[in-house]
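Consider the subject:
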Amino acid sequence: MEPDAARPDVLGFVELVGDEITMLFVDPDASRRGIGLALLRTTVEHARASGLSAVVARASLVAEPVFERAGFGVVERQQVLRGGRSLARALMRLPLV
C-alpha cells in the first residue's frame, strides 16, 4: 500500500514532564482505535521504570474516559479560563506503587 502524502505518519503523541502528563493527542481520523490508551500505558510503564510513585494529568472531559481506562482516578473537578471561556477538566492521578 502506498503512503498517503496527505495523512500524517504520526497518529498521536504524549508528553510526560516530571510526574505529569502534560499532553495527550490522537489524530481525530485515528480516534477510537486504542492509540491513546496504548500511549498512556507505555508512558505509565516508563514512569514506573523511572521510579515515580504516581502520575497525574489534567484531562479534558473528552480525554477523561481514556485516562480512566488506563487506571487513573479523578482527584478533583476543575474549571479553567481559556480564551475567555470556562472549560471543565479533571485532575486525575494514577498511583504506581
Q: What stands out?
A: The chain has two helices and five strands. The chain has a mean pLDDT of 92. Residues 60 and 89 are 5 Å apart (CA to CA). The first helix runs from residue 35 to 49.
